[in-house]
Design goal:
Helices cover 26% and strands 25% of the residues. This is Putative amidohydrolase.
C-alpha cells in the first residue's frame, strides 16, 4: 500500500480558510495513495488555545465537508487529522476524523490524553473515553493523537482491538523532537505494528513545531522520515509484514500482565 503523510506548516499569519483550502489541495495532489494523513488541529493550531472556542466546529462542519469531498474525489482513505469539535451537549474535544474512499465519515476519535498538565488542552478540552479502530481493506487502523504517544497502555489496548497500523496525527513541539522520534519507534516495536506519525511544521502561538513525520515498520525500522519543514512524506509498504513479524518473533504470545493467564499455566 501507499501512504502519504502531509506535514502541513501551521502559522498564525495564515487565515484558517486559506489553510483549509491549501490542505484540500495537498490532499487532492495525493491521488494514487491508499491512505492520506493530516496532522493534529491543523486548521486552528495545536497550541492556539485562545482560538479553539470560537473556531470549534461540529462533525459535519466546514473542515469535515471539505475533507469528505477530497477523500471521495481521489478515492483514498483519509485520516484528516483532528478538529476542535463542538459538542452541543458538552465541552469541546480534540477529535480525529477518518473518511472512506467514498467520502463517508466512518470513524471519529476523541483524544484521551490531553496535554498541558494544569493548563492548555488539559483544562480547555474534554477527554475522550473510547479506544477506536477503523477497518480498511488493507489493515485495521489504530487511532491515537500526539500526547497519546507517551502512554503505551493505549497502544496495547489498540493492539488488543486488532490494530495493525497505528496512525498518530500530532502538533509536537521542536523542543521535544527526540522524544517524538523515540516514542514512535518504541510503540512500533512494542505492538509489532506500523506507526504512521504525522506532525505539523511551522510556528504557531509562539511554539515551534518539530516536523519529522515518520513511518516505522513492526521491527522498529524507519521506512521514511521528513525534515523540519512542510513536505509530503510518501512511502510504500506491505501491511502483511505485521503478521510476518508477529509470527517470526512471537513476543506478544508471552504477555502475562493485564490479560487472563493462559489456561495451561493455571
Amino acid at each position: 500500500m501507499r501512504a502519504s503523510l502531509i506535514q502541513l506548516s501551521v502559522s498564525d499569519a495564515e487565515p484558517v480558510a486559506e489553510r483549509r483550502a491549501r490542505a484540500d489541495a495537498l490532499v487532492r495532489a495525493q491521488r494514487g495513495a491508499d491512505l492520506v494523513v493530516l496532522p493534529e488541529l491543523w486548521a486552528l493550531g495545536g497550541f492556539a488555545y485562545d482560538a479553539w472556542s470560537a473556531g470549534a466546529e461540529p462533525l459535519d462542519g466546514p473542515t469535515a465537508e471539505l475533507m469528505a469531498r477530497a477523500a471521495k474525489d481521489i478515492g483514498a482513505w483519509l485520516h484528516a487529522g483532528s478538529i476542535v469539535e463542538r459538542d452541543p451537549d458538552g465541552p469541546v474535544y480534540n477529535t480525529s476524523l477518518v473518511f472512506s474512499p467514498g467520502g463517508d465519515l466512518v470513524q471519529t476519535y476523541r483524544k484521551i490524553h490531553r496535554f498541558g498538565f494544569d493548563s492548555g488542552e488539559a483544562v480547555a478540552m474534554g477527554a475522550g473515553q473510547e479506544i477506536v479502530t477503523a477497518g480498511t481493506e488493507f489493515a485495521t487502523l489504530g487511532l491515537a493523537t500526539c500526547y497519546d504517544l507517551r502512554f503505551p497502555e493505549l497502544f496495547r489496548a489498540l493492539l488488543d482491538a486488532g490494530a495493525e497500523l497505528m496512525v498518530v496525527p500530532a502538533a509536537w513541539p521542536a523542543r521535544r523532537r527526540e522524544h517524538w522520534s523515540l516514542l514512535a519507534r518504541a510503540r512500533a516495536v512494542e505492538e509489532q505494528a506500523f506507526v504512521l506519525a504525522c506532525n505539523t511544521a511551522g510556528t504557531h502561538a509562539g511554539v515551534e513545531q518539530a516536523g519529522y513525520s515518520v513511518v516505522v515498520d513492526p521491527w522498529g525500522t524507519v521506512l521514511a522520515e521528513a525534515g523540519p519543514d512542510e513536505e509530503v512524506l510518501t512511502v510504500e509498504f506491505d501491511p502483511a509484514e505485521v503478521a510476518r513479524a508477529r509470527a517470526e518473533f512471537p513476543v506478544l504470545r508471552d504477555r502475562l500482565l493485564g490479560i487472563p493467564a493462559p489456561a495451561q499455566r493455571r
